[in-house]
Amino acid sequence: MPGERAVHELLTGDAQRVRSLLVQRERERPLEPLLVRARALGLAVELVDHDTLAETMRASGAAPGLARGIVAIATPPRLYSIEDVFDGTIPERRTAQGRQLLVALDGVQDPQNLGAIIRSAEFFGATAVLWTRDRAVGLSPTVVRASAGATERLPLIVETNLVRAVDVCKQAEYWSIGTVVDGRPLREICAEGLPERLVVVFGSEGRGIRRLTRERCDWLATIAGAGEVGSLNVSAAAAVVFATIA
After folding, report:
1. Per-residue pLDDT for 190 more than 90?
2. What percent of the chain has pLDDT over 90?
3. In Å, how far are 23, 36, 219 from 29, measured between CA atoms?
4. How many alpha carbons lie under 13 Å from residue 144 in its C-beta half-sphere?
5. pTM for the full model?
6. Which CATH number goes with the domain that contains 13?
7. 37 and 97 Cβ atoms separated by less than 8 Å
8. pLDDT (tens digit, 9 = 90+) per residue, 104-147?
């Protein structure tokens, strides 16, 4: 896990997963408050040179620049199933408008987008973020860094079949709203009144929501714009949708 913010969130949320911290020597002084906390928790702190830290990042498949002087060597966070939402394993959360909000991603490929969506979902009070194992980006140091540590605060669900997961939610009296470029304006749908329990589905960067997933959505919504660009990046669109409905 790279970066000061992400390491801070890890130490706050689940320090037991941390095996050690690698710290660039030149960054030791600015990071001292975080290192004091880590040592107080009994964690090993190893001072290394820039090249060693960069090589550690490359070995994990992440860009060396994401480290910003510190990397936590840790076990991955727990990944949940959709059933965990309904059996009490995942704590209930509500948005500012009192909604129980689940976020489902249908084939998001870019780790920066996944991390940004997780960050926004946590900020607006979503219960969890869900995506599939196949044809989608997985959890990685880049995702963690882009989430600013929100991966440590928000339950993450990974399923084999997104359509099945949405069906499970519908059986639990959740309604689903898919974000598309050819739907009804989101504000128009909101003006008619949205239910308390919602699954919001976002599609992939290139193809959007797949056909079978679209067919499970109770509403297909679009963000109405005034410019010439046809749509927003998926992570930007997610932030707008959350701000509107949450």
Report:
1. yes
2. 75
3. 10, 11, 53
4. 28
5. 0.88
6. 3.30.1330.30
7. no
8. 999 999 999 999 999 999 999 999 999 999 889 999 888 988 99
Residue 167 has a CB neighbour count (10 Å cut-off) of 14
Selection from 227, 222, 226 nearest residue 237 by Cα: 222
The position carrying tokens 């709203």 is 177
Q: How far is CA 39 from the centre of its chain?
A: 29
Residue 22 tokens read as 């690698």
> Is residue 100 domain-shared with residue 205, that is, in the same domain?
yes
Tokens of 60: 């994990």
In terms of residue numbers, what domain contains 38?
4-74
Shared-domain flag, residues 95 and 198: yes
**Residue 31 in tokens:** 């990071």
Give the integer Cα–Cα distance in Å for 55 and 52.
5
Amino acid at 4: E
